[in-house]
Amino acid sequence: MTSCWNQTRVTYFQFLPFSSIPEIQGSLFCLVLLMYLSTLVGNILIIVITVVDAALHSPMYFFLKNLSILEIGYTTSTVPKMLVNFLRKRKGISFLGCATQMYAFSVLGITECCLLAAMAYDRYVAICHPLHYTTMMSWNMCFLLSAVSWLIGILVALGQTTFIFSLPYCGPNRINHFFCDLLPLLKLACTDTYKNEISIHIIAVLFIMVPFLLIVVSYIQILHTIFKMPSAGGKRKTFSTCSSHLVVVTLFYGSGIVTYLRPKAFYSSSSNKLLSLSYTLMCPMMNPLIYSLRNKEVKQALKRLIAKNINM
Questions:
Q1: Helix ranges (DSSP H) in 94-231
Q2: Can you say whether the dihedral through the CA atoms of 49, 52, 54, 57 is positive or negative?
Q3: Of 164, 170, 166, nearest to 184 (Cα)?
Q4: 179 neighbors 78 (Cβ within 8 angstroms)
Q5: What is the pLDDT of residues 6-32, one digit of tens each?
Q6: What is the three-class DSSP state of 175?
């Protein structure tokens, strides 16, 4: 183990360019900016619709509203800094800024994992226990599930960020990424990080895989119930109420699991950047489209909102 306590401590981290071709930095900036603005507009629209339309005042859309709030924060924790760095020669972030960014990103990411599990439970109760839905998914239960999701995210991210930034960083300070993510930062620590890597995988298993397994179990029960329905129309209508959530889960968990749970031998900085871009920007941008295009109630609420504004 190499000690660096008598050496200069890192106070600033520098991000390596997203691409090694300087000529395409402007094009990348425009593309990422367009995707970010689309994410903001789409998720804000979902929040507005679920707040103003009385037909969407149900547990399912309460969780959808929370998901959109998370997605806005999730992208905002990383993308604005990335856009600024596209335009600057010195692409970097202070030590404190890096810790703050990692904490915000971790809080929102872990909370989203738990919230997606809560949304799966809501669909399970609605489809498998419809007669008890109003009692099992009361507003108190909805607020409790949401609050627990946030509490888990806040506490786990606090412990994880403290653990990472208590390590000695004495150089180099160049992060081969576009934000302060766990694995690229660990590579810069001038000490043995084996225990930290183990802790990251344990946290990933507990707060990525456990919620994911709960979602899988919920959908196994949901599909079992749907297959027992006598009419094909009833099956399609019932499955349509949860298909959007299933697509969102697949996109979010697919990229997250590959990023944080793949063996170290398969880790590469270039693939990690693309995977990170998919779950920090692509998924939040796609979610409003998925829910608006595949959900009849959201489409109807959107039409009512447009018609109301036109008639004003």
A1: 95-128, 133-136, 139-165, 182-186, 194-204, 210-227
A2: positive
A3: 164
A4: yes
A5: 455 788 898 887 766 666 778 888 999
A6: strand
Contact 126, 241 (CB under 8 A): yes
d(CA 74, CA 270): 21
Looking up tokens 């009361």 gives: 138
Work out the pLDDT band at 146, boundaries 50, 70, 90.
very high
- Cis-peptide, bond into residue 172, ω within 30° of zero: yes
Please name which of 267, 87, 281 lies closest in space to residue 187, comparing C-alpha atoms.
267
Q: Tokens at residue 159, please?
A: 């412990």
Owner of token pair 């779950």: 279
Residue 46 to residue 56: CA distance in whole angstroms: 11
What residues form DSSP beta bridges with 174? 14
Closest CA relative to residue 112, chosen from 252, 206, 244, 216:
252
Tokens 């959007």 identify what position? Answer: 244
Question: How big is the chain, counted in residues?
Answer: 312
Contact at 8 Å (CB) between 188 and 172?
Answer: yes
Phi, psi of 299 (to 5 degrees): -65, -40
Phi–psi pair at 15, nearest 5 degrees: -85, 135
Spatial CA neighbour of 63 closest among 149, 133, 132, 136? 149
Contacts of 29 (CB under 8 A, 6+ apart): 83, 86, 87
HSE (CB half, 13 Å, CA atoms) of 161? 22
Q: pLDDT tens across 87-114, in order?
A: 877 788 999 999 999 999 999 999 999 9
